[in-house]
Specification:
Layout: H1 2-5, E1 11-23, E2 28-34, E3 49-53, H2 70-75, E4 85-89, E5 92-94, E6 99-105, H3 112-119, E7 125-131, E8 154-159, H4 164-173, E9 180-186, E10 201-207, H5 215-231, H6 246-250, E11 260-261, E12 271-278, H7 279-292, E13 300-306
Parallel strand pairs: 8-9, 8-12, 9-10, 12-13
Antiparallel strand pairs: 1-2, 1-7, 2-6, 3-4, 3-7, 5-6, 11-13
The chain binds flavin-adenine dinucleotide.
Length: 313
């Protein structure tokens, strides 16, 4: 689960300022954050997530604790002075310039992050929580990233607009020999983002254009699953009856729990799938791929990035 990882000791609060704001499409806003503190930020690329800490109107970051115990101290604050935390993807990090980009979905005046991005200006203060560079050169950089296909020779990436920044960052990092399919559902045709991908990876932007969230992407993922299952290249165990973890799958209540089911690293999977977005939609895809098609859970990372009608907290 994302929350637990971010409270590890090596995670700290970084002070940054808005260096640029650009409207990428009708529903994506890129915010560039900069600050000398980012000299200590540890980037692992791919779908690396961080927390952004939002200012409290009229109060800013006055009570936000710092130091190693910041998280416990933050939790102990009264609601009125506890800055909201929200999870976002590092779209790109430029260590020399001490800058990072976040691509926000602007979803209106409904949550503190979306509200903030609608009115942020160059020079505004923000805080992020992320991993610090390792204290010794012998240690590897640490960060909260999940994409890990191992030796899979076929990949699937699927997600809605909140997963688009992560998918784009992953695509740009893939080996040129990678083979696979990518389905990204966005609100409108005008929300397709430019991204480069290896020649063997087919990228489909799916515009919702008023349809229910996730329906069009789900159809495409189902079609993909049928194709790989019938071609016998999925490593699928078979139908639902052969899948021993069916009971656990039905028990995830996405209104009460975070849907976050990420397999351990493995080099023993012909297909690797990474699926993120609205939790109800991700749950349905999880059921279909694992129980319906019989994909082994060690082949699929499922991540609920947000939930209709629920604030992240
Ligand atoms: C690992 C991870 C990486 C993520 N990366 C990104 C990213 O790079 N870019 C990005 O935009 N989001 C990303 N998200 C999703 C983002 O954290 C949520 O959308 C978050 O809820 C936004 O916070 P908020 O304060 O705007 O809304 P909240 O206060 O959390 O929610 C308020 C209301 O808004 C609704 N809501 C939340 N998000 C959306 C949405 N996208 N569309 C419509 N309604 C929504 C909620 O259902 C709720 O009713 C990521 C989430 C995770 C877990």
């Amino acid at each position: 689960m994302p929350y637990l990882v971010l409270v590890a000791a090596r995670y700290r609060v970084f002070s940054v300022r808005v260096a640029a704001v650009s409207s990428l499409t009708p529903n994506f806003v890129r915010v560039t954050l900069a600050g000398d503190a980012l000299a200590e930020f540890s980037s692992v690329g791919l779908d690396q997530r961080i927390k952004i800490v939002l200012p409290i109107p009229g109060h800013g970051f006055t009570d936000l604790p710092d130091g190693e115990d910041w998280y416990a101290a933050w939790r102990a604050l009264p609601d009125a002075t506890r800055n909201p935390l929200r999870t976002y993807t590092v779209r790109s990090f430029r260590p020399d310039a001490r800058e990072l980009d976040i691509d926000f979905v602007a979803h209106g005046d409904t949550g503190p992050a979306s509200r903030w991005v609608a009115s942020c200006r160059v020079g505004d203060e923000l805080r992020i929580v992320g991993p610090a560079v390792p204290s010794s050169p012998a240690e590897l950089p640490t960060g909260a990233a999940e994409f890990d296909p191992g030796a899979a020779n076929r990949i699937l990436l699927a997600g809605d607009e909140t997963a688009a920044p992560a998918i784009c960052a992953i695509l740009e990092a893939l080996d040129v020999t990678a083979v696979g399919h990518v389905f990204i559902e966005v609100p409108t045709d005008a929300d397709r983002l430019p991204v480069s991908a290896p020649a063997g990876v087919e990228v489909r932007w799916i515009a919702r254009n008023g349809a229910s969230h996730g329906v069009r992407m789900t159809d495409q993922v189902h079609a993909w699953a049928s194709t790989v299952a019938s071609a016998g290249v999925s490593g699928a165990a078979g139908s639902a009856s052969s899948c021993g973890d069916a009971v656990e799958l039905t028990e995830v209540d996405v209104d009460e729990q975070v849907l976050w089911d990420v397999p351990a690293a493995s080099d023993d999977r012909p297909v690797y799938a990474w699926i993120a977005g609205e939790a109800g939609c991700v749950r349905e895809l999880r059921r279909h791929l694992v129980r319906g098609v019989g994909l082994d859970r060690k082949q699929v990372a499922f991540m609920g990035y947000w939930r209709h009608g629920k604030a992240e907290n």
